[in-house]
Structure formats: C-alpha cells, structure tokens
Amino acid sequence: MTEYLLLFLTALAAASVIPVSSEILLLALLGTGLNPMSLWLTATLGNTLGAVINWFIGTKISDHADSRWVPVSSASVERASHWFNRYGVWSLLLSWLPVVGDALTFFSGIMRVRFALFLVLVAIGKGARYAVLIITFEALPL
C-alpha cells in the first residue's frame, strides 16, 4: 500500500515544476510484481491531479498578471493565448510531455478551458503515456 501512495505522490509532483520522474518509480514497482493495472491507475490519477492543480493556479493567476508577486506578465499571457488558440485544446493530449506539458496545463487554466474537457484530454494523454510504459515493460524479455 505504501508503494502506491509513494507512486501517487511522485506522479502528482511530476506534474508540477518539481523535477521528479514518476516513470522510473513506476517501472521499478512493476519490477517488484505489483499489479500493473493498479499501478497505471495510481500514476494516472496522481499525474492528472497535479495537472488539475496547475489548471486551477492558472485560472487564479491570470487575474493578477503583471503584479509584483506573480511571475507571469500580460505579454507572456498574450503569447500563450496566441499559441493556445492556434493549436487548440487538443494540445492538452500532449500534457504528458516534460516541461511543455506543465506549461500547457497551466496556460489552459489561464485560457479558461472548460474543466470537464481539460480533465478528459489530460487524463487520456497521461494515461496513455503510462500505459505505453507498462505495456513496453511487460513485453520485454527479462
């Protein structure tokens, strides 16, 4: 049970700016014989919740762009808006990407992407990434 909690918290942190890799822990736990479906669900939930936190922060921070205490300028919000409008909400399927994915989830909050749509797209992207890792690991002849 402790392993699942650790994976959940690591996946949650990995969706933030904290430089941690949930993939390494996931693969290590797979090697111990834990249930792959439970590991997939745990990692996906943790990583998706981390993205939800980014989205929520984005929704709150956009009202305060250019404040001294907010590290986001209205110019960067404008650039992100232009990029996000160009590629659309479907780019959230790439929220699993390191660094870029964190920014996507944050700016989708600034852009006020509907939460339900955000949640579905992010969960699909993050879940697919963990599924590919698990399937690949399971297919390796060890």
From TrEMBL:
<keyword id="KW-0472">Membrane</keyword>
<feature type="transmembrane region" description="Helical">
    <location>
        <begin position="38"/>
        <end position="58"/>
    </location>
</feature>
<dbReference type="InterPro" id="IPR051311">
    <property type="entry name" value="DedA_domain"/>
</dbReference>
<dbReference type="Pfam" id="PF09335">
    <property type="entry name" value="VTT_dom"/>
</dbReference>
<keyword id="KW-1133">Transmembrane helix</keyword>
<dbReference type="InterPro" id="IPR032816">
    <property type="entry name" value="VTT_dom"/>
</dbReference>
<keyword id="KW-0812">Transmembrane</keyword>
<protein>
    <submittedName>
        <fullName>DedA family protein</fullName>
    </submittedName>
</protein>
<feature type="domain" description="VTT">
    <location>
        <begin position="22"/>
        <end position="134"/>
    </location>
</feature>
<feature type="transmembrane region" description="Helical">
    <location>
        <begin position="116"/>
        <end position="140"/>
    </location>
</feature>
